[in-house]
Amino acid sequence: MRTALAIVLLLLLTGLVQHPQPTELADEITVYSTDNYDPVADMTLGANQAIASNIAHTGTKTVAGQEWDMYRFTLDSTGQLNVEFDASNSSDPDATAGNGINSYEWNIFFDMPYGDDQFNLEGHTFSEPASSNGLFTYSFQNVTVSEDGTQENQIRMELRVYDTVGKVSEKFRMYFVVADEGSVDQEPVFQFDASNNMTLTDSDVFYINGSLVSGSETGEVFVEGAFSMDDFDKSAIGKYNLLVEGLFVRSAALSDSDTFSLTLFIDGFYTNLSETLHVYIKTYEWRSSEERWVNHHWFEITLMPCQGLVAPEDAINAGGEFILDEDGHCQWDGAWTYDPTTGQWEAPAPEVSIDFEPTSVQNNISPTTNHFLINGTISSTTVEEVFIEVTFDYTYLTTVETVTAYALDLGLWNGSSGLSEGETFSLGLMLDPIRSNVTFYETVYIYAYTITENNTILSLETITFSIPVINFPDLENNSNETEENPTNPQLPPVVTINISDYVSHCDGWESFTIEQTNQVINGSDCPEAEDSASVEDDESEGDSVPGFEAWLLILALLFAVSFRRKLNV
């Protein structure tokens, strides 16, 4: 029962609810009875093709932060000009059909001859119905420019629209100056030097050059340049800041036949890529504290990557490229190096790889060795020819001219001819000239270089290794002296010496250094081996556990038996 009563009540309440009913208007516009938005007014000049030459857009007028168009009308031979206006773009956001406008209200203010101070502040009002579709024609007859063309008044037109419930829009404005036929005020005519337009550049600056041909009746025509259209509308402070940076420029006041040359800085727009840059130009005449005859032009230029800095083809082929740093400046990144101060490019040092085994040389040095060979192969190189030098003294490697006759004669230096990749070298040095009364190690230098196109030496690689230079005392009963024969000198006999013959009586002689070996050979006592004590300790420690191996075997067997029992459990 309660459920049935609830259903009945819901049905009754539903029947009481009334939906908003559409209202049919005379102009066939359908809206709901609720209206939340105000209509919006909008107007343009209508179809005025027949009088297009009598109409000129001269700029905009700023009122309370809003820009409104300004036009200059020139009366025809009849002394008037009928101008059509079109407000069909006005609309009401609440409309569901059509534009929602019920009527158009046109207000004209200050339509009076120049110098006439008898005028109606309320202006003239014209109301048009929705059936006008927003079209309105007004006849201008009053000249608002002084006879000399230097002063003028402005006529103001305001449009307001009403929707079907009586809501009214904000005002939409236009401003007009009316001149008589043959008026002296003409639109300024410029001639620009367009030779830099659509060009490729690496310059720091861009020049706007040209001249004012005609149209400056009062000598107050100006030219401005910028890199953005928005810059022309900046405040005085904003324009000044751009002017300081070279990003905005304005000419002096121009009269007919004056020339101008304006400079803008473009160096800050370069990147590591080719960039397209637009340079915008604004021209206007300053009249009655306002801009008129405003026109805009623009040039297009292409900025070269890195402001024209081009890397050598070899540097690019080597994988290098220009990149931008944190400050937006081009920096070279690659194997080649670039000096921005001198503008010089430098290729990376050539590479060379030499297959050489110093151990093979060291192992072949015996106590009687006097001449030894350094053999190697040019395994790889990035130059056509590689030269190899070997020596005991690094000063001989500076250049070939510094190698003295002493070094050449005594075998302290040797050098190869030019070698290509894959070729081998075999260069000898002598030990006798550097041998002394002690045994020592001597450093051997292997120096690889090439000769450049400028006939200069370019170092490629230096390899060093050491060889022992051993000195032994004369052996008894082993000299086999012969009588001197000045006319037929005999070569000295070849003596074969075994180091163990001199040092094997010392404990641990196999681990002696060359200095220790030399001391024993020269009659000194045997030096104590550094590790002998530790060896004895190890031996005694090993002897302290008799049958160590047996114990290990017993433990292994016990572990095996125990493991087997566990398996059987």
Structural commentary:
It is a single chain. It is built from 9 helices and 30 strands. The protein is α+β, with helices and mostly antiparallel strands and 569 residues long. It folds into 4 domains: 30-179, Immunoglobulin-like, CATH 2.60.40; 189-306, Immunoglobulin-like, CATH 2.60.40; 309-346, no CATH class; 352-469, Immunoglobulin-like (Sandwich), CATH 2.60.40. The strands form 9 sheets. Strands 4-5-11-10-7-8 form a 6-stranded mixed beta sheet, with no helix packed on it. Strand 20 and strand 21 form a beta hairpin. The radius of gyration is 53 Å and the shape is elongated. It starts with a helix and ends with a helix. The model is unreliable at 3-20, 23-27, 475-497 and 531-545 (pLDDT under 50).
Salient structural properties:
single chain; 569 residues; alpha+beta; Immunoglobulin-like; 6-stranded mixed sheet; 5-stranded mixed sheet; 9 helices; elongated
Please render the helix and strand layout as text.
Elements: H1 2-16, E1 23-24, E2 30-31, E3 44-45, E4 55-63, E5 66-74, E6 81-86, E7 101-109, E8 124-129, E9 135-140, E10 155-163, E11 172-179, E12 189-192, E13 199-201, E14 205-214, E15 221-226, H2 236-244, E16 248-250, E17 259-265, E18 275-287, E19 290-303, H3 313-317, E20 321-324, E21 330-333, E22 337-339, E23 344-346, E24 352-355, H4 358-362, E25 371-381, E26 387-391, H5 405-410, E27 413-415, E28 424-430, E29 440-451, E30 457-469, H6 500-503, H7 514-521, H8 532-543, H9 548-568
Parallel strand pairs: 5-11, 13-19
Antiparallel strand pairs: 1-2, 3-6, 4-5, 6-9, 7-8, 7-10, 10-11, 12-14, 14-17, 15-16, 15-18, 18-19, 20-21, 22-23, 24-25, 25-28, 26-27, 26-29, 29-30
